[in-house]
Amino acid sequence: MARLPAAVSAGFLLVSACVHTVPPPAPPPQEPPAQVRARIQDWEDRRSLGGGELVRLATAAPEVSVRVRALRALARIQDVETLEAVVAGLTAPDKAVRDEAAFAAGELAQSWEPLPEDARTALTAALVRAEAAEADGDVRITLLESLGKLATPDAVEVLTARLSPAEGPWSEAAATALGVAARKAGAPAVANVPLEAIRALLKPRERIEVNLAGAYLLAASKRPDAVEALRACLSNAHPDVMALCVKGLGDVGSPSDTLGLNLMLGDATPRVSAEAARALAKLAAKCAPGASCAPLLALEGQAHLAKRVAEGKAAQGHALLAVAQQGLPLQGRPVLSRLRKALAEADRTAVSDEAHADLAWLDCRFAAAMDRQQGSLEQVFQCGYGRVPEARWLALGLHEVAQFKGAPTTASKPGEASPAVPGAAFAVPYLNHASPLVRGAALDALSERPVPEAMAPVRALIGGGDAVVAGLAAATAGKLKDAAALPALEALAERVPKEPDLAEAVAGALVALQGRAAEPRLREWLTHPHANVRRVAAESLTTLTGTPVRSARVELPADTYRPPAAPAGTTLTLRTRKGDITVLLDPDAPLTGGNLVALAKQGYFRGITFHRVVPDFVAQGGDPRGDGEGGPGHSIRCEMTRRPYARGTVGMALSGKDTGGSQFFFTHSPQPHLDGRYTAFGEVVSGMDVVDALLEGTVIDDVVVGTRAP
């Protein structure tokens, strides 16, 4: 150590002796962790990084709970600029921090605005390193889940290595993650996973969860060489395993699988019988035209289910609904007709108004399926026994006919011949219908099958007051290549700042009609306060320029809508004529729960229907319009939780990042590919049998707010 010269040293000591020692200032009092977490909540709600403070807390906060909460906020904000902070958490000393960082990595992996390729590569490498070094089992499982959400080749390679042995500690998580990867990146992403490794997961064992993970991967992989494995697992005793194997067989099997699937049709569990019916409908499309078709014969034998629905056993109607939604080839028309006849006969003996309503809605579904076979409206004009509102059956028919790819073969109105034209000219008159649902459905049909005579009436709708219809009209004008629609389209684009739901349709039309001239406006949208508008702008500019474009994160103002959080233990009870469904809200999603509580207290949900029911998937409601396009007039931010989408989980329906409003859904069965993508904000704690009985058109009489006893 260097020393001062003696003379200088002595002088220094003399001076020092005459100076009073001043104590250093006391450090500022440390902010209580609860107060810091409250600030983090505010930043998260406003999609703010707190001027860099949020990243600092995520990487260096001394209190573990604060660091974990900061990482959860980064997971929900999903800003690629925070990637380094998330990666740093993967090697933190505390396992709670590592686990939360692993979850945040998965959220970045499935951002609504996809990560740049270099970020995906860097995140993959970090997760691979962390997974190889991780000693804690729970954290390692979270890392495997996030690798599945990334779905990169290197991620798939690691997950494949963890499949074996089947009894190993990681096989279940790895199989599920590979299934998620297949759902995200497509079945070819997992084509090289050894089939024997998957089959080993399906052997009878004590832990049904391993069987379930194997069946999920097998169904998602859609491998023709897996047919025998799928057939074998039909004998599994667990309904969710059976349903997954039935689903897989519908994708890669053949009409020769009818016998095995026919046995599943009689299963007492609605989601199993519904999957069997859907699988048979898929396989019917593989029958040679004019030849005997075993799947069709099996489906015709399900006419007796109409009587079960009439007896009030609505869950039995899920198999019928699955057939109508899937549709049948034209040679299956007699089957659809026979099932409609069975519904009409059952209607005469229905035990309640609710049973009558279920039969009526199913009848319109089958009528629409028949019209879809021929590409024109006919059967829906006589559907529903007068109980389904005209706007609903007409919109349903138009949406179904929009999916027809050939040339129409029958009349567009009862008793009236129509020429066999490839477009949807029959939909043009419905552009002037009084109901926005019908106008929107007509636009859907014309967007899929445009005709020149639609240009003028479509143009007129672009300037209409209904934002949903205006947006659909703009999208259709783009498909029609109608340059004369540009003035109306530009006027509609001016509404986007205040009506962000218009962005996607308007952007697509601008790109189609203006080309590079649309670039200045789209670049303005890159800084719009609404995340989904920015995403749409970035994707549209990427298409226009051929160069990847990303939007910037934009902080929301302090007065952004934030309802009071629902207290812990808050429940929502949906009252329907089929019974009550009680949901326990998750306190980890305070904004989502608080929003729905506020709407329920306003009576918002009274009279709203479940407009979408997909058997063995979801039942969705909460839309006052009834077509999946409506909401309360405001949106809330996503609050991704660690709750998995198991049977009976309740989630928010979205059309993009931070677009939640009032639409929610119940899951009929586990849906891992939804995990971390849609806010899971609660679970059904009573009334799951009612969820199973929901059909399209089921009315919500009210939603009551309550509290569950501790």
UniProtKB/TrEMBL annotation:
It comes from the Bacteria. It is an enzyme of class 5 (isomerase). Its EC number is 5.2.1.8. This is peptidylprolyl isomerase. It comes from Corallococcus caeni. PROSITE patterns: CSA_PPIASE_2, PROKAR_LIPOPROTEIN. Residues 1-21 form the signal peptide. Residues 579-710 form the PPIase cyclophilin-type domain. Keywords: Isomerase, Rotamase, Signal. InterPro entries: ARM-like, ARM-type_fold, Cyclophilin-like_dom_sf, Cyclophilin-type_PPIase_dom, Cyclophilin_A-like, PBS_lyase_HEAT. GO terms for molecular function: isomerase activity.
